[in-house]
Design brief:
about 220 residues; mainly beta; Jelly Rolls; 8-stranded antiparallel beta sheet; 7-stranded antiparallel beta sheet; 2 helices; 17 strands; about 55% strand
């Protein structure tokens, strides 16, 4: 029995790569123009669309394109972002969503001619944090890691060196819609491209601790 539990612990501790099939994901607010080809999602972002709840601005919107699948448990998700940003608040990135009152979006956002690493965390009301970049890179990688009741958010220019931009609360032990989001609050839309989207299953920390304590 001890050998069986030890083998189970070893198996559970190894990350499992999930093969994402972009053409089998589903839309929330499907845009008029989009395409999946060579493991890349391209879309023309819906004009005058966004995600925000109440705080600071006093309005709620929930109408931007979001292409997703639903996962449970702990995970790492990442994607490469390339956008033809045009006007203020053009944005694209990852979205993690429980429901209309509890979600996170993280990626890049174009504000006053500058590209920003941007995160909005919403629990009934939204907040917004940004890191302004000195120059506009050709693309940015964004990664989110969900562990227990927290999500760590990172960005990278090369998919090798990642810098943390935020640690935020997100309820654990509930299914999460994970996917690709873009919004264009002020403008008439822009071209957005998402490449190399990947979700990696991470073993549950509480289960691993139980297995360790009950070898």
């Amino acid at each position: 029995m001890k050998k069986i539990i030890a083998s189970l612990l070893l198996a559970c501790s190894a990350p499992i790569m999930m093969a994402q099939s972009l053409d089998k994901m589903q839309w929330f607010n499907e845009p008029e123009k989009w395409d999946v080809k060579d493991k890349t999602l391209s879309m023309y972002v819906t004009p005058q669309s966004d995600y925000w709840r109440i705080s600071h601005y006093g309005f709620t919107v929930d109408d931007a394109p979001f292409y997703y699948s639903t996962y449970g448990g702990e995970f790492e998700v990442k994607v490469k972002l390339t956008g033809d940003y045009k006007v203020r608040f053009d944005q694209m990135g990852l979205m993690l969503r429980i429901d209309h009152e509890n979600w996170i979006k993280a990626g890049v956002e174009f504000v006053d001619g500058k590209l920003n690493i941007s995160a909005v965390v919403t629990h009934k009301t939204s907040d917004w944090s940004v890191i302004q970049l000195d120059k506009v890179p050709p693309y940015v990688w964004v990664k989110a890691v969900r562990r227990l009741d927290a999500v760590e958010l990172f960005y990278s220019y090369d998919d090798e060196t990642y810098t943390m931009m935020r640690n935020a609360h997100l309820q654990d032990n509930v299914p999460i819609m994970i996917g690709l989001m873009a919004a264009c609050p002020d403008g008439q839309g822009f071209e957005a491209k998402f490449e190399n989207f990947k979700v990696t299953h991470l073993p549950d920390q509480r289960r691993l601790q139980w297995l360790e304590n009950n070898k």
